Each structure stands twice: as C-alpha cells, then as structure tokens.
Automatic annotation (TrEMBL):
It is found in: Cell envelope. The keyword Signal applies. Residues 1-22 form the signal peptide. Gene3D superfamilies: 3.40.50.2300. GO terms for molecular function: carbohydrate binding. This is Sugar ABC transporter substrate-binding protein. It holds the Pfam family Peripla_BP_4. Keywords: Signal.
Amino acid sequence: MRKGLLLTAASVALVSSLTACGDSSSSADGSGSDAKKPKIGVILPDSKSSARWETADRKYLSEAFKAAGVEYDIQNAQGDKQQFQTIADQMITSGVNVLVIVNLDSGTGKAVLDKAKAQGVATIDYDRLTLGGSAQYYVSFDNTEVGKLQGEGLSKCLSDMKAKKPIVATLNGSPTDNNATLFAKGYNGVLDPKYKAGEYVKGPDQSVPDWDNAQAGTIFEQMLTSEPKIGGVLAANDGLGNAAIAVLRKQNRNGEVPVTGQDATVQGLQNILAGDQCMTVYKAVKKEADATAKLAVSLAKGEKGETNATVEDPEGKRKVAAVLETPVAIYKDNVKDVVADGFVTKEELCTGKYAALCTKAGIK
C-alpha cells in the first residue's frame, strides 16, 4: 500500500453523512443559475460502499447549503467513473464556483480537479484526499486515528474474551481509496507489535475492491476455509464487518469472534447490541458536512476558507490546507451516545428484536 498522509495539526471531533442520486436546489430567493452568484457542486461516490453516503452526507450538506442561502447541486456517481466525470463536466458548464468531490479513485479525481482548476473553479476534497490531485482544501477526519481506534478496539475485545494467541484476519478497504491506506496504517500500528511479540498470530490479510460487501463475504469465506481457527477480524468498516459476521453466523460462531467496524451505521450498531460486532468508529458526519459547507460557501463568495490542519499528499509532494475532525470509538456501553447525538434515531435502531437490547443499553 501507499504511504499515508502525514497529519501536521491537531484534529477536532467531527461526524458525517450520506448521499443519494441527483439533488439540487436554487438559492433562497429562487433565482436561477448565475456564474457570478455562489453555486456549489458536490459529487458523492456511491450508495453501496457505506450507508453513510445515502443517509447522512447528502442530508447534512443540503441543510447547510439551504441555511446559507446558496444554490447547490448534489449528485451521486454510483460507483461509475465515467458518470463521475460526466457529472463534473455538467456542473462546471452550469457555472459552479466551487466543486466538492469524494473521489472514486485518485486517477479519476485528479482529472476532474484539474479540469475544474483550469476553469477557475475552487475545489475541495471531501472525506478522501485525491493523491496527486489539485484540490485547494481537504475536509475529513483523522483517518490514521480511525484505524488506531479499530486496532485498539479489537485488542480490547480479545483481551475481554481472554483470547490466547488469537489468529487475526484483516479485511482492508479498497486499495484505490487513500483513506483505506490511512486506516491500515493506524490499525497495523497497533497490531504489528502484538504479532511480533507473539501475543497474536497474523492471519489472512486482504483488501476488498471498491469496499464491496458481497466481495467481502466471499473473501472472508475463503479466509475461513484456509484458516478455520480465525479468532478475530479487523474489518475496516461496518459493511465489511457485517459480511464477515454473516459468514460466521452460518457456522454459529457469531459473537465468539470479535469483529470491528466503522461509520456507526444502524446495521453496525445493531450488530454491536446483539454482541456480534466488537466496536465501530463514529465519525460525526454532520460536523464534517457542516465544515465542508462553511468552507465551500466562503470560497464561492470569494473569501478565504478557515482550516485547522495541513496534510501532505505524498504523490503530489505538496501540503494541502485541511479541516480535520476526531473520530470516537463506540462499544455496547456507549452506543447510546450516537443516538443522543442524533446521528441515528431510536426508531430506526431499536426495531424488532433490538428493542429490548436498546433498553438494556440505556438508549432512550
């Protein structure tokens, strides 16, 4: 994997959201598109890799843009690189002042950012840094810290279970997503010393193309076939974690093998309440979206954006001004904090068999 970003400033807590397909709105006064007026375009990556893009990011970004009274257009590329570029072309032609992207990979992202830059459009990398790209700003979480929390979480759960030299399998995120590289840097920094000390045994380790959950299930089945005594799973997000849990459930081993996650999805939190998932990482998407919207609105109005960090793009050999937020580890005893924060509702989380588990976990 490529070397991760070097964080050179303190991070602040932040949480995030989700997307769907096209979503656009005119400015508060109802006026049409005008290149001289603030107009912001946002391209989200897909609706399959994580529920967050559909359930949180679009919602929070839309709310923030509406509150600011600016015209905006939010679209989802649905994992299609050609569609990603087509959407970008349409947005640039329509006169956006600022283009915010969540890249599908750095190659596609770079092409879009370079084209926007050539047209005088300000650019922001949202959530994922485009390596070798030209985005003026980057808004995300401290992603190495996300991975560190996952590694520490798995270690905690294995310790609580009094596991003896467990074999740990790893389901990494997509090899084309720089965030996956950063997550791995974080959790490997925790786990590698334990492998070296003989506390854990390093088991199968594989990346999942495009964060595809179906492929993750197939990959994990193969892992379990090659190494039936897997005793812990470092899964890079809740979707990959759920894929592993589904395979373990077929063998009646769910709950016996701790599995990590990320994104604090409803499914991930339900798995935690049921005892099938060890932990997840909560990234306050609303804070990430609000920070992005604030920055984008400033740029669209010709003002300078405020940042709190700098990250290094190792491929572009440049430093990028950034806004970074701090992630939070979530276990069964603090699932209630995610609900209290409004990221998920009690109604969507505490359905059916999970109602009693929610009550037991203190969720009100």
